[in-house]
Amino acid sequence: MTEPTASAPPGLAVEHLSFGYGAELVLRDVTFSVEKRRFCALLGPNGAGKTSLFALLTRLAMPRAGRIGIDGLDLAGAPRAALSRMGIVFQQSTLDLDLSVRSNLSYYAALRGLYGRDAARRIDAALDRLGLRDRAGVKARELNGGHRRRTEIARALMHGPQLLLLDEPTVGLDPESRAEITRHVHALCETEGITVFWATHLVDEVAPGDDLVILHQGRVLARGVAAEVAGDRPLEAVFLDMTARSA
Amino acid sequence: MRAYLVALVAIVARELLRFVAQRGRFLSALVRPLIWLLVFAAGFRSALGLSIIPPYATYIPYEVYIVPGLCGMIQLFNGMQSSLSLVYDREMGSMRLLLTSPLPRWWLLFSKLLAGAVVSILQVYAFLGVAALFGIDLPLWGYLSALPVLLLTGLMLGALGLALSSGIRQLENFAGVMNFVIFPAFFLSSALYPLWKMQESSQLLYRLCTLNPFTHAVEAIRFALYGQANLAALGWTIAALAVFVALALLGYTPMRQPSRGLSRRR
């Protein structure tokens, strides 16, 4: 985690972001940035403002103050170009359970402006990635929780985004699938060279080498490489201390 | 430009696929108006004397009178149901998926509206088909001339639902929508009785009926089913469509100081 430099814009830059409902402020002066090709975890207890931050990053809501940069593009100034560089996995599943895996993928492709042979190729590639090429016709309902998440991640990557946003993607999964998804996305970050921004309230999903932003009650309490934030103590203890102290 | 059309077709196709997959929804959409037609109308026909009013050229039995109103009811229910599923989170995830597409929001919302209208039109024709089996048929060309009007009314009632879904959180369940939207819209209209009947009972209620966009939707459908254009009703329906679309667009534009919104629903 470094401050933005003039040469290469960060994959994600958040500057002095504030947001609230009525008089209640949910995010206060949130600032951080994620360098390209880095995995950054947004760690915060429930109610820290993680989902609100995601709503701002995906332009489902607008900040009261502050600015969001996606790969050097201003989200408020060029929302459509910025959105087209993002892949998003929401906390709540957005698969159509009654439709087949292939229909889910092709619907997404169309929403992202992909069509024809190009879309077909990307859909097949996503199915291969999932190992579901032979079972593309099964309804999404028939997949287990881990596989549904994998499908959503593969879908979010179909249009070749530079930035992958995931809002607590392991919620509701068993420990094994949770570890598997966490490993999978870490690997994606390395092999595909995409920037990953991963929200969670679970410390064990953060690897020592990841960038880390700790959010609590709408404020950034710490940012930096996870191992450095933790120092010589376990990250869990540091996180609990921080959130308890400022509560 | 092609990307716009591809997205539109995909959104409509998805709605159709979902509609086919959810057989229960189709069945209840069909049974509801049939109960009105075959039971309510049968009991009611002797109680209500109808005079000859346009577009009818002759005396008509009561069950023929209420067919256009029931077509409107199907579309009203469809519009409210799709909006409720949005308010109720069942569909909120898919709405997020839609709104984070890089295409312009107005186009995405229009596609969503069109998709809902297409589904409601299928329901209407299924209903008209069953009604015809029971001997309640219309002039043949009426089935065709009603199509563009059903598209318009379907869009208008869908836009009403979309506007409600974006602006109102208080409609927490379907009972609330039934009480505060569907029943008033349905009963304060010309769906079940001609408005001159209402005028004999209460001038105030009559005024309310004439202001109700649903009345104009029903009248537009009624005339279209007999191959005629009721320009006043069509004009009112188009005006209502414009207002509801504007409200829906406003509601789904991200705001700096939301009182509620997509961001808050989890």
UniProtKB/TrEMBL annotation, chain A:
It comes from Salipiger mangrovisoli. Belongs to the ABC transporter superfamily. Gene3D superfamilies: P-loop containing nucleotide triphosphate hydrolases (3.40.50.300). Keywords: ATP-binding, Nodulation, Nucleotide-binding, Transport. The keyword Magnesium does not apply. GO terms for molecular function: ATP binding. This is ATP-binding cassette domain-containing protein. Residues 12-242 form the ABC transporter domain. PANTHER family: ABC TRANSPORTER ATP-BINDING PROTEIN, ABC TRANSPORTER ATP-BINDING PROTEIN NATA.
TrEMBL record, chain B:
PROSITE patterns: ABC_TM2 (PS51012). It comes from the Bacteria. Keywords: Cell membrane, Membrane, Transmembrane, Transmembrane helix, Transport. It is found in: Cell inner membrane; Membrane. InterPro entries: ABC2_TM (IPR013525), ABC2_TM_bact-type (IPR047817), ABC_2_transport (IPR000412), Alc_ABC_transptr_permease (IPR022403), Nod_factor_ABC_transporter (IPR051784). It is a multi-pass membrane protein. The chain crosses the membrane at residues 34-53, 106-134, 140-164, 176-196, 233-255. Residues 24-255 form the ABC transmembrane type-2 domain. PANTHER family: NODULATION PROTEIN J. Belongs to the ABC-2 integral membrane protein family. This is Transport permease protein. It comes from Salipiger mangrovisoli.
